[in-house]
Design brief:
Length: 181
């Protein structure tokens, strides 16, 4: 017994959705975001100002969960190409002043805990970073790329084998990825 469930995602003006093989592409004023889409399980139909997702699977609970997941992925993609996403992190340096800058798709952290060699944190996708004092602003059109870039930065400055109550130096996430207002 297979049940068919449908949901639709509204598309603002200037946003187009295309599905080629298993690649879902959402294009808008800020750029385009591509993601692998399970074309065998979910049918996508674009008509006018909305994209209709249809899922035909046995059962109800898991089917609705899969459909809701892909609905939210598409909503995030549409939000990304229309508004973009931003996340923030804060530098804390109690012992040694850090120097942070972007270079060739990486964020370089110099003089972290007085280390001689700089640490490098990769930026995922087309994510950009701005350094303003001790605040780092990450921005981009893909929410997952922005969030992963901030997480990479926090992980790069994680201190091992020191008491974290004394050595609080590092870069910490202060705002998770959210749409630009």
């Amino acid at each position: 017994m297979s049940t068919e469930h449908t949901t639709s995602v509204p598309l603002p003006k200037g946003v187009t959705v295309t599905l080629k093989a298993d690649q879902l592409t959402v294009a808008g004023p800020l750029g385009k975001v591509t993601r692998t889409f399970p074309a065998a399980a979910i049918a996508l139909k674009v008509s006018g100002d909305s994209a209709m997702l249809t899922l035909t699977l046995p059962g109800r609970r898991k089917t609705l969960a899969i459909l809701a997941t892909w609905e939210h992925h598409m909503k995030n993609m549409v939000l990304g190409v229309t508004k973009g996403f931003v996340a923030q992190a804060k530098m804390v340096s109690a012992h040694f002043p850090m120097k942070v800058y972007e270079k060739e798709g990486h964020v370089i952290i110099e003089n972290f805990l007085g280390e001689k060699f700089p640490r490098r944190s990769p930026l995922v996708g087309t994510t950009k970073v701005e350094v303003a004092g001790e605040v780092l602003k990450f921005s981009g059109i893909d929410i997952e790329a922005v969030g992963q870039s901030v997480a990479n930065m926090e992980k790069t400055t994680h201190i091992r084998n020191y008491d974290p109550r004394v050595f609080q130096d590092g870069i910490y996430i202060t705002e998770k990825a959210r749409p630009v207002e």
